[in-house]
Automatic annotation (TrEMBL):
Residues 124-218 bind DNA. Residues 124-218 form the OmpR/PhoB-type domain. The keyword Nucleotide-binding does not apply. GO terms for biological process: regulation of DNA-templated transcription. This is Response regulator transcription factor. It comes from Gluconacetobacter aggeris. The keyword Phosphoprotein applies.
Length: 222
């Protein structure tokens, strides 16, 4: 996923961005509302991890703006404000979840996965295509009953295509899901990842639509 982190505590923000990238997400990190607004205007994010107490205002103001604008982007508040009234206010403004600092990174990743699954297009967290089974809940893939070992970014490719099962994903959409701002992208990077995944899961799972992008094959390989 493409995740926007808005956090003014620099050691924490840097650590969260690095952990998200290691988990296969494309993560951008900013410390102010102004920078976050500019990023949201330029990039289509899948998920927002939002601190409330920021140098130039409250994260709740940004959250209300996002929801008034009709955005269905998943939003999780991450803040030291742990009163029940604070949680109720954040959820009422449109947040999907609320995590209190200091938090465990593994719990953060699990909560992000749980919230994002509710936004997915699949009716189930499991997708079976021929001999390949994709389990979004467990973040795992098996082929003919055998688990397949995928790197974080290889999994990110599969997850993106699975959440949009049957729909076309352009090269640019895949790049956005894999790389954050400032990360260097080689010209053939997406083709390399697709090739690696095909070698592990079978050439027929990911179809190329020439000049347009990629999609998962429907059951039966069509």
């Amino acid at each position: 996923m493409r995740i926007l982190v808005v956090e003014d505590e620099r050691p924490l923000g840097s650590a969260v961005q690095e952990r998200l990238r290691r988990a296969g997400h494309a993560a951008d990190w900013f410390t102010t509302l102004a920078d976050a607004r500019a990023a949201l205007a330029a990039i289509a994010y899948d998920f927002l991890l939002l601190d409330l107490g920021l140098p130039d205002g409250s994260g709740r103001d940004l959250l209300r703006e996002i929801r008034r604008g009709g955005s269905a982007m998943a939003v999780m508040i991450a803040t030291a404000q742990d009163q029940i009234s604070d949680r109720i206010a954040g959820l009422s403004d449109g947040a999907d979840d609320y995590i209190v600092k200091p938090y465990d990174f593994d719990e953060l990743l699990a909560r992000i996965d749980a919230v994002s699954r509710r936004y997915g297009a699949l009716a189930s967290n499991r997708l079976v295509l021929g001999g390949v089974e994709i389990d979004l809940g467990r973040r795992s893939l098996s082929r003919d009953g055998q688990d397949v070992d995928l790197t974080a970014r290889e999994w990110a490719v599969i997850e993106l295509l699975a959440r949009r099962a049957g729909a076309l994903c352009s090269r640019e959409q895949i790049e956005d899901a894999l790389y954050g701002l400032g990360e260097e992208i080689e010209s053939n990077a997406i083709e390399v990842f697709i090739s690696r995944v095909r070698k592990k899961v079978g050439a027929g799972l990911i179809l190329t639509v020439r000049g347009r992008g990629y999609r998962l094959a429907r059951e039966g390989g069509a």
